[in-house]
Design brief:
The structure is a homodimer of 461-residue chains. Chain A is built from 11 helices and 14 strands. The first copy, chain A, is α/β, with parallel strands linked by helices. The first copy, chain A, folds into 2 domains: 241 residues, Aminopeptidase, CATH 3.40.630.10; 151 residues, 3-Layer(bba) Sandwich (Glucose Oxidase, domain 1). In chain A, strands 1, 2, 3, 4, 5, 6, 7, 8, 9, 10, 11, 12, 13 and 14 form a 14-stranded mixed beta sheet that branches. In chain A, a hairpin with a 2-residue loop joins strand 1 and strand 2. In chain A, helix 1 packs antiparallel against helix 11. The first copy, chain A, is elongated and about 95 Å long. The two termini of chain A are 43 Å apart. At the A-B interface, helix 1 and helix 11 of A face helix 1 and helix 11 of B.
Chain lengths: 461, 461
């Protein structure tokens, strides 16, 4: 009798064990199928080419941004999701009316410079402004010099990104203050303009833009970015010659109210349609850039997750919601509008996952959440280590999903090989040719696999 | 007394422990300094640009290859190594006299095709050859069809690389038989020519070349590579139309004897000048390619190891010998000449390290040696895991160092992210613009660090 009971216990244990092994086998096979499907597919890369060639410079409120929304909506629509709609709203915006120009004058010579407006920069008068340049390497240096030295100068922020860091996003964080706050700081002491060295790891001719902020109550001054090559030339000339002057012409305008949209689509959950796994990226890109890595690739990766689920006939238990946000670059208006609508809906988000680190070799997922969620997701993502996703852990989610944190929603960001990112970021060099299809598709496969694993196993909060 | 002895033992143990900790700290600091130096340096990338723009298509025996040797010798010479000399020899060679051309004729239409000669291909008559095409997907298929079907046809090998594999080098190995042996197989059954689909992971217009071999005693037939896009077009047209014909013009010649060289340079060991740590790469590149990843990057990485040792004032105990091999692509003549000279010299090589997997993100070192060497090198390379070198283990060394294995010399190959390699390999797309400076420099830093660690700690055989 005791023996029979023991046998039964053993049998149950064995069957249960077999069940776990089988479940793991199924998961392993599904992940393998996801990777094989992603790597052999060219649709998503062709979609990226369509987006970046037809709608480059798709800054919020621009005609290109409206075209981008339509292109992406059509690409999603082809996959026949259960829902696909626009979340419309209005927002202020800003635009470049004609490309900014600059020259350097030394001795009897004049040379043109590779420059681009920084985001939200004001215009110069029609004839431009001319001024002596004052080279500095920090915002503090401007404080130290004070009005006497700074007044009427064009302040030239020329601190290079710290290339000695192995992670370029860290180098970016350490360098972005000049771009974001340089003009405001210079204006505080009466400067007539600001020129900022581009945030690039490389020495070349592409100028990189990005958002900058003025301070309320202080006169706004024209604010431009210069290529790393020309920053070095300007610095050299300014040391070699007396009375070096720069001429800058900027022609921009703010837009009080532009109509725009987020794009939302869903594959409804078979068991828990009210529970949401959010996958997101942003549709907008800077006026001077095709926006292939930032963030066309993210958009196409998330759309391709839908394609893969459909083609492999993976029917999720929870709803997978695709959100392509508008206006990550300037005001994060799409992100705020979406977050507000979530608050209103009171719908339950299991997790939100963003891809906004380029269509580059994926290395892991950054998780912005409590320890238990981090551990749970690390455990879930273990089968992906064999596919090179070995760096999953505490980290950063993404700008667009950031406001969801206040609702207690875990944020997850695709972590990529950062080495090449700042060759492209916010510049004309961010082209589809500089995206590797296979690297982008490995990112897609990693995201699709994580979504599948979360849907199947849940997260322990 | 006993207590005093115990104290002494404890003190010795503590001091010894402190010594180990200090040694590890020194190593950690040196590796950190190597990475910082590599990542902030632009010399090596500028050297690569010089090599690839001044001496593209530097196939053994060509004027470009002679120029490449001079360029690289000058680059090495600037670093003032203890020795720097050419190891001269003669070898047969082969060249393309004028670029090969091909057209497809269907109905009343003729379209030109993106093609390139495969390595060692013979010429057609001056007016070219015209023939019906026979599409096959394997060498076995040609055997099965036999002379009746194959005779006088132009056999079109159109099996695509298997993109579902996550490691593209595996996909390459699985696809290379068509290129290496397709023409020989087709000739065996009387075909008039061979066209082979390019070994590329992508669908585009670049044809890729590479070596192919004929069989002794069988008529050699013209042998060309076609871009993946045009391979798909040719296949489609051949299905849609009857009597599709292809015209091919090939103009090549073999060279009986060309004078050429390996380039050798050394930093002499301070303690054991007779013991050698070999670092190598190959100078030659296919006639149609700037050869930036294959293998300009490898050459520049190895040269940069010298620069880093010099700049950081790291004085190795053993001799670091740089060997830039000639003719990896066709006959491996440089590799054979070097190996023969080693046999003659009876000098002791501790290890040989090659970089020939592109200037791409490094992920580890492949080791071709016995288990004890593998374990010893894995242990040595542990500090590099923090720098993303996490895949070190049993693997492949390199074509140029392969003959050294018979002398019992451990072979080590830099392992890179393979995703983008076959977008470039053996094609006009292998440009310096497609090499990321930071990725290449991370490879350099990994090699320099490994050389430093081996020099300091030795390998357990």
């Amino acid at each position: 009798m005791i023996k029979r009971q023991l046998n039964t216990v053993l049998l149950v244990a064995l069957l249960f064990g077999a069940f776990i092994v089988k479940a793991q086998d199924t998961e392993k096979n599904t992940i393998s199928a996801i990777y094989q499907n992603a790597l052999t597919n060219y649709d998503s890369y062709n979609n990226l080419r369509e987006l970046c060639t037809k709608a480059p410079g798709r800054l919020v409120g621009s005609p290109a941004s409206e075209l981008a929304i339509q292109i992406l909506k059509a690409q999603v629509g082809k996959l026949q999701p259960d829902t696909c709609y626009l979340q419309n709203y209005t927002t202020p915006s800003w635009r470049v009316k004609s490309p900014c120009r600059a020259t350097v004058q030394y001795g009897s010579k004049t040379e043109s410079l590779n420059v681009v407006n920084l985001g939200l920069s004001v215009s110069t008068p029609l004839t431009g402004i001319t001024g002596e340049i004052l080279e500095v390497h920090s915002l503090n240096a401007v404080d130290s010099l004070g009005s006497k030295v700074v007044k009427d100068k064009i302040v030239f922020f020329n601190r290079a990104m710290d290339n000695s860091k192995t992670n370029t996003f860290e180098a970016y964080s350490g360098g972005v203050d000049q771009r974001a706050g340089g003009a405001a700081k210079a204006a505080q002491y009466g400067a007539s303009g600001a020129i900022v060295r581009s945030l690039s790891t490389e020495k070349y001719d592409f100028p990189h833009t990005g958002v900058s902020r003025y301070k309320e109550g202080i006169t706004k001054i024209p604010n431009i970015s210069i290529s790393t090559n020309d920053a070095e030339m300007l610095s050299r000339l300014n040391k070699q010659h007396a009375g070096v002057k720069v001429w800058v012409k900027s022609d921009t305008e703010t837009i009080d109210s532009a109509r725009t949209s987020n794009l939302i689509a869903e594959i409804k959950g078979s068991k828990h349609p009210e529970k949401i796994i959010l996958i997101g990226a942003h549709m907008d890109a800077w006026f001077n850039s095709p926006g292939a890595h930032d963030d066309g690739a993210g958009c196409e990766q998330m759309i391709d997750v839908f394609r893969i689920f459909k083609e492999l006939n993976i029917k999720p238990e929870n709803t997978i919601r695709l959100v392509l946000f508008m206006d990550e670059e300037m005001y994060q208006s799409g992100s705020k509008v979406y977050a507000a609508s979530v608050g209103k809906e009171k719908r339950e988000h299991i997790v939100s996952i963003e891809s906004d680190a380029g269509g580059l070799l994926p290395l892991g997922f950054g998780i912005d959440a409590g320890d238990s969620v981090i551990n749970s997701l690390k455990k879930l993502a273990e089968p992906l280590v064999d596919y090179g996703i070995y760096k999953t852990g505490k980290g950063y989610g993404g700008v667009d999903i950031a406001p969801l944190k206040s609702f207690g929603i875990p944020l997850v960001g695709l972590m990529t090989n950062s080495q090449r990112y700042f060759e492209y970021h916010h510049s004309a060099n961010d082209t589809v040719e500089n995206v590797s299809r296979r690297e982008m598709q490995l990112g897609t496969a990693a995201i699709a696999s994580l979504v599948y694993l979360i849907d199947k196993n849940g997260i322990k909060y």
